[in-house]
Amino acid sequence: MTTARAFAIALALALATPLAAQGFDAAGFFGDSFRAEPDRTDAGILSHSLTEAPDWVDFTGSGPGRVRGHFAFDDKGMNVRPDATQPSCEVLLDVGVTRARGTLKLVELAQGGRFALHLRDVTDPAAAWLLEVSHTQDGWELCIRTRTARRFVVVPGSKQALPKLALPAELAFEIKSGLLSLGTSGAQSTANVELKHGLGLGLSFTDQRACVRDLSMDVTLDADWMIEAGQRLLARRTLERLREYATVGLLAGIIAYPHPEIEEALKGYSAEEVRQRANVGDDIHKRAEVLQRIAAMHPKLAAAQHEAGIAALAVGQLDAGRAFLQAADKLLRTPVTSLALAEADRRVGEITSAEEKLKLARADLPDVLKPDFALVKARLAADRGDIRGAQQILAAAHRDYPNHVQIAEFADSANVLVQPPTLQATELEGPFGLRLISDLDDESLKVMVARLQPYAEKIRLWLPDMPEKLDEGVLAIFSSPIEYLHAALLVAGDNLDNVAGMYLPHGIGGARSVMACRAFGEDELQRTLVHELWHMCVASTGRTQTMPRWLNEGMAVFLSAGRQDSEARMDYDELPSEFYAFGEAPLGVLTPEHLQQAIDARPAEFYVPGVVRGNYLAAWVIVWFYASSAENVELVRAMIRGDEGAMKQATAKPQALFEAAMKALTKAGIE
Q: β-strand 435-438 against 474-478: which pairing, if any?
């Protein structure tokens, strides 16, 4: 299968086939942890060793401080350490069930501690139960508790005492309407409970250290939960691919078109080079490596330079790709090289140069490349802020090439940006006076706006000269990841890295816009909005182009990771959740070189796939080190204002900065 064909099929499947049409993909949601029953999508075995953190869990606690550090995973299992700051720690399982029967191994539970399966009604927040085992001074005890207005109370008749319990011990539980039970070592606690709705599950640990492992349960999934989980899964999949569609996918037609001198060039290749070139397949990284190596051996062959340039662009090596294409252009100007150079220039922000290359590409352009020409031209119009112009270009191209998948999707994106079909203007005022449009109900929006208020106040503290109101801006909240993707595709594919929202200098109706998708959940929506609102507020001060990208993105991550404590103060004492993608010790991957790379990166370089997450992590570390220290607050404010002396003072010694930041993070308990 050709690279162009492969991307066209992937794009069509992901954008045109709603997940709901196929039923809930439990295996896709839970990964290898789920084994479905034959011919069913709503039932099967959900299991995990708990020797590492599953992807489908979240962590919470009863105290205001950081929670994640109270959990550790090793060969023994999931180790939990409640303390005075977090008397209760809980793992929330992202699963909703109408029935479950399973086992869990209790490896450790110190005296005075309690472990429970925490069951929550997915519809009624007031309805909840605990299937609990506790280690008392007199031995062990099983019971089932039900939630009242004030606290959890023991269901009469459910308490069962065990004088001894040999660990590790297997806990067996059953959850169904009419019966809740928990048993171990011959003792069983039961309660007759009528369940009206599906239940969410959590593993709760209170007061003392504990360890569990080997969770396994036969479940029937709740229908309402499956709908919401399906939306979250669809959001993950579509957002993960957005960069791919708008970068590699945009090059698909150019990749497939042979350079006019490639047959002649092949005559000058060695037999081994010909073999390697033929065997790269659809692996774009291998293709880039092989073709760049061949181009280095044949600097006078325009076809070799051209192929290497296209391959480098496809994997995000912008400077290398552009250099190879410029070399090819000097050796032999061809429409396909000019078109590729226009895209390379566009991606590094050289809009004027890109437009010049596009004019050169028009002359003698083969018919097969005209759809690609239209795509690049439309993206350039969008980059200039001319969304309506981009819409007109894509609409005309769609009439001419109705079966071209990418043109259809980009045209749809332009239409959504000009006038989102599913979003309605509300009478609610968004943060900073933004116009708020959404397909959510007003009550949900009121809650969201209220949650953003303390973060908005912090943004104003760092940007005291921003306007009182951003009257011309738009805040758009989508519930559907598909609609969000359609809106995002045209304008943000180059700079999107698997996040649930974005700031667009020229977004809906051509106005500054923040767009976000609710499908990842309320907490992720809040973090995303804070992050992107920071970018919009920076733009309102006119500093977007002059502020170093590491500072802009580092501040956005720093602010969005803030946590409001019980006294309504903002604390920044947790590692941002997005960095747990690095594993159990995210900061362990960081080096002084990463800090230097993030500091030096130009805007286009900051977001290159493969290094972008490391750049974000490094940027956050630098900002956290300075912004969370009272004596350095003025230094950060000076950097935000564009003070070159302050910038040099903060970043001139990356090695010393790295060592000081790591020491401060360790002292703060952030790992």
A: parallel
Which candidate, 505, 602, 481, 490, places its Cα nearest to that of 250? 490
Q: Over the stretch 159-180, which tens digit does the pLDDT of each residue have?
A: 999 988 999 999 999 999 999 9
Residue type, 148: T
Confidence bin at 196 (pLDDT 50/70/90): confident
- All residues at 6 or more sequence positions from 633 whose CB lies less than 8 Å from its CB, including other chains: 626, 627
Cβ contact 379:371 at 8 Å: no
Dig out the tokens for 522 from the structure: 């309320």
- Give yes or no for a cis peptide into 505 (omega within 30° of 0): no
How far apart, in Å, are the Cα atoms of 8 and each of 244, 245, 337, 369, 408?
11, 9, 22, 15, 11
Contact 373, 406 (CB under 8 A): no
Domain with CATH 3.40.30 in the chain: 421-543
φ, ψ of residue 406 to 5 degrees: the values are -65, -40
Joined tokens for residue 372? 């690609």
d(CA 366, CA 260): 11
Which tokens sit at 643? Answer: 């003070």
pLDDT category of residue 41 using cuts at 50, 70 and 90: confident
Which CATH number fits the domain 244-418, given the four candidates 2.40.30.170, 1.25.40.10, 3.90.1010.20, 1.10.3720.10? 1.25.40.10
- pLDDT (average), residues 631-635: 91
Q: How far is CA 35 from the centre of its chain?
A: 26
Measure the CA angle with vertex 422, ends 420 and 427; round to 5°.
85
Q: Which residue is listed with tokens 């029935």? A: 99
Q: Which of 560, 571, 537 is nearest to 640 (CA)?
A: 537
Output the pLDDT for position 50: 96
pLDDT for position 507: 80
Residues carrying CATH 2.60.120.560, the chain:
42-221
Does residue 205 contact residue 110 with C-beta atoms inside 8 Å? no
pTM (2 decimals)? 0.70
Give me the CATH topology for the region 42-221. Answer: Jelly Rolls (2.60.120)
Q: What are phi and psi of 294, to 5 degrees?
A: -65, -45
Residue length of the chain? 671
Q: pLDDT by residue (tens digit) across 393-424? A: 999 999 999 998 888 888 988 888 888 888 89
User: Residue 590 and residue 582: Cα distance in Å, rounded?
Assistant: 10
Q: Which residue has the higher pLDDT, 210 or 508?
A: 210
CATH class of 421-543: alpha beta
How does strand 210-221 pair with strand 77-80? antiparallel
Alpha carbons 207 and 282: distance in angstroms, whole number: 54
Listed in order, the ranges of the chain carrying CATH 1.25.40.10 are: 244-418
**Residue 19 banded pLDDT, cuts 50, 70, 90:** very low
